[in-house]
Design goal:
This protein has 233 residues and is an alpha/beta fold. It has a single domain, classed as Rossmann fold. The chain contains six helices and nine strands, in the order ββαβαβαβββαβαβα. The protein has a nine-stranded mixed beta sheet with strand order 1-2-9-8-3-4-6-5-7, sandwiched between helices. The longest helix has 11 residues. The chain is globular.
């Protein structure tokens, strides 16, 4: 198998349509400076958001743990003395930690305080107003710039503005890129969704590769990247 033709390629940003477990083996060893990804959590998540024009379907491969087989492939691609940031749910944090720890050197976890949770079970559970991201190192990685805390307060995407059921704000990803990679980095997101990692990379003038199994979300990501004005405050 050889690397397929990119679905999109412009200004240092490339998107590949397909299963990342088939595409990752074709990328060059130790070519990636930062892995930044929000994979399916394997919990069969179904968004309750419904508007006049939008209803999200379940995420592909979110009913299993296929992401675990991608972790060794990602480690091979990561340059020495670099790191990966992997979002996960509190429901499977323990399992993700153990699986990532088989290949990466786990150093930290970011707690994203998103300023409010979903509807959920109003009577029996507290509001889940945070998400987690595990940080795994390869080699002797050092953070960029001044050391900061691991709880980040950044507002979530307003529901009516979401292009993906688990979309996260570009501000969260730009902060991660600035903390975990230098200005000449190449960022990889093997579970790209609607392309927020790539949008963040473009805002910062960084190169990036995104892989997404859904052509619908690839098209949305391309549309976001091709907007004439990308506003970020």
């Amino acid at each position: 198998m050889s690397l397929p033709k990119p679905y999109y390629e412009e200004d240092g940003i490339r998107i590949f349509l397909g299963d990342c477990r088939e595409i990752l083996p074709e990328l060059k060893d130790e070519s990636i400076d930062l892995i930044l990804t929000d994979p399916p959590y394997g919990i069969g998540y179904q968004s309750n958001m419904r508007t006049a024009t939008k209803k999200f379907n379940k995420i592909t491969n979110d009913d299993n743990n296929t992401r675990f087989s991608a972790y060794p492939l990602l480690y091979r691609l990561l340059k020495n003395n670099s790191c990966g940031v992997f979002f996960c749910s509190f429901k499977n944090y323990a399992v993700d930690y153990l699986e990532l720890n088989k290949v990466f050197d786990i150093k930290n976890c970011i707690v994203w305080d998103k300023g409010g949770g979903g509807i959920g079970d109003l009577k029996h559970t507290l509001s889940t107003d945070y998400e987690l991201a595990i940080i795994g190192h390869k080699g002797n990685f050092e953070i960029v710039g001044k050391r900061i805390g691991s709880v980040w307060e950044i507002p979530k995407v307003f529901p009516s503005d979401m292009t993906h059921p688990t979309e996260k704000p570009a501000e969260l990803f730009t902060k991660m890129i600035n903390v975990f990679a230098t200005s000449d980095c190449l960022v990889l997101d093997p579970y790209m969704g609607s392309g927020t990692t790539l949008v963040a990379a473009k805002l910062l003038g960084r190169r990036a590769i995104g892989i997404e199994i859904s052509e619908e979300y690839c098209a949305i990501a391309v549309d976001r990247l091709r907007q004439e004005v990308l506003k970020f405050d």
